[in-house]
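Lay summary

Proteins are chains of building blocks that fold into shapes. Our project writes down both the chain and a compact code for its shape. Here are two examples, one after the other.
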Amino acid sequence: MLKSVIQKGAAVKSCGGCSEARGIDKLPLIEGVQISNMKEFAQWTVECDKVLTF
């Protein structure tokens, strides 16, 4: 599902703090996914029309 969303031009970010807390911060990500932080997620939420989480 993520690959399809990325191919359609959507930005996909993963929480760096959450990844680190679960010990997966050093694992490779799907191409097109970037590590981010809560500051950026909050800004996205303020600026966007829709938010998808899963």
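And here is the second example, written the same way.
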Amino acid sequence: MLETIAIILIILWVLGLVSSYTIGGFIHILLVIAIIVIVLRVIQGRSVV
């Protein structure tokens, strides 16, 4: 569940960069959250995908 949310947030971040449409720093905050979720999953020893 969390890895799915992280992947969706990363995709939204990339789309925001490509389209030059960002809602202030909000999309970058989402990216940071996605990276934190992935790192926590790796540290806990679970599969990221």
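What can we say about the second shape? The chain has one domain: 2-43.
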